[in-house]
Amino acid sequence: MALGYVAVVLFAALGCLAPLAYGGHTGGDGEPLDWPRIALLAVLHLCLESLAQGRPTPCARLWRRLRGRPVADAPEPPAPRGSSFFPVLFAGVLMLPPTGAALVAVPGALVGHSAAPRTLRRVWNAAQLALAAYTASGVFRLAGGERLLLGARFPGAALAVLAAVLAFCLVNGVLVAAMRRLVGCPRTAERLLPPVLPALLHGVGGLMIAVLWHGPYGAFAAVIGLLPLTISAWTSAQGHREQSAHRATVQALVQAVEIKDAYTRGHSERVGRASVLIARQLGMGEQRIRTLHFAGTLHDVGKLAVATELLRRNGPLTDAERRAVEVHPVFGHELVRDLAFLGEARDGILHHHERLDGRGYPHGLAGERIPEFARIISVADAFDSMTSTRSYRRGRPVEEAVAELERCAGSQFDPVMVDALVAAVAEHGWQPEPAPPGGWDGEVPDIPLGVPEPARPLPAPGRALSRGGPT
Q1: What is the reported pLDDT for 379?
Q2: Whole domain around residue 285: which residue ranges?
Q3: Which residue from 12, 56, 159, 390 has the highest number of Cβ atoms inside 10 Å of its Cβ?
Q4: CB within 8 A of 274, min separation 6: which ones?
């Protein structure tokens, strides 16, 4: 079905370029094609798309080949959503007939990065962008934008540009949403709205290029005017690449922990997700939420330094074994202390087993002395632990886990964080980890409803909870 859809879109895109089969001198509406302008815009669009996605531009690749240096063939990381750079493409929409505007979009899409299968994905990208550009150019001309642009009459030209950008977003959004639905991607409707705001900003950039191009200095002024946009695209790409590197580092550490402790596979990601739910309920800023997600995902990274036999023990631990497990927050902090991008996440990893009453570990902190990230992760960790089935006990229903958190609020957990999680779960729901096919090997006893309190106050590091309660 998806292949048939691609074929239909490709056929429609080829129809937009059909006038080229009849001499290639007009854009289908009688307007002559300015081939030098089309070529220059296509090259600029291709180069800026490469910069925006953090890839070497074709000129940079050619220069490396001329100097005898190898060009890396390793796949680049996927470009983040919203990293496409369209000011030059929109300039083509405003200055060229529909067929010419479609031609500007094709080289950047065909040469641009995409996931496997590369050829099919690139052809699809080129076809849907060509259709969007063709439609936007037609709308711009129907709105009289070309006549207004030549006289630089505003706001008439701006309104025509707005109509063209909205037409581009509509065609692009509908085509992409239909493809995502065909290949089974969730939440396809959200693809229609998010691109509009950045597209409007890119449309303003395209209008600036078109106005400069029609000025006394022509294409030279337009290219010089692109410099600020180029710097912005390159800076944005570097930020995206840095964030991708951070995510890859975190994911590698998480996978190492999950390989060692098979029964907690997926636990780290769920704790990170639950931590984000709490943070959003508290109104935390997006930058801190990203850092908190790292902290929640890496909270158990110190288990890499704990004996595998202890992590996989199907039964209670001795006091000595429990103390050996209790040092995992310290080991985790040592493992990540040099990862500067984690920031306050490192304290969250170190203190996520502290208790509000000071009877936790490793340092016996109490109340507000426990870092906010640690208080959030403590609740998220306990909640997922109680709702997940492990080798030594069954997971509880969400309702029972919530009741247990509320019972221990004020002694073990921060009541504010518990209330935030309860509200978030009520609003968004929670899907516990399913048991593996065939269930766990051996007997799986039920866990008691109560969270056992330590038998007596202990100095740091404090005594851990028994394996019957949240961990």
Answers
A1: 94
A2: 261-428
A3: 390
A4: 296, 379, 380, 383, 384, 421, 430
State phi, psi for 451 to the nearest 5 degrees.
Answer: -95, 110
The residue ranking higher by pLDDT, 76 or 263, is: 263
Local confidence band at 52 (pLDDT 50, 70, 90 cut-offs): low
Distance CA 368, CA 93 (A): 57
CA-to-CA distance for 149 and 346, rounded, in angstroms?
Answer: 55
Residue 227 and residue 106 share a domain: yes
Given CA atoms 40, 46, 47, 51 in this order, what sign does their dihedral have?
positive
| CA pair distance 212, 111, nearest whole angstrom | 28
Q: Distance of alpha carbon 213 from its chain centroid, rounded?
A: 36
Can you tell me the mean pLDDT for 404-414?
A: 91
- Tokens (6 digits) for 128: 């849907």
Three-class SS of residue 413? strand
Look at residue 315 in the predicted model and tell me its pLDDT.
66
pLDDT tens for each residue of 192-242: 444 577 777 778 888 888 888 877 778 887 878 777 777 776 776 677 777
Task: Kindly state whether residues 307 and 237 are assigned to the same domain.
Answer: no
Cβ contacts of 144-150, under 8 Å, gap ≥ 24 = 145/94, 146/94, 149/94, 149/95, 149/210, 149/211, 149/214, 150/214
Distance separating alpha carbons of residues 203 and 216, to the nearest angstrom: 22
Identity of residue 34: D
Of 341, 416, 410, 409, residue with least CA distance to 376: 416
Asked whether residue 218 falls in the same domain as residue 302, the answer is no
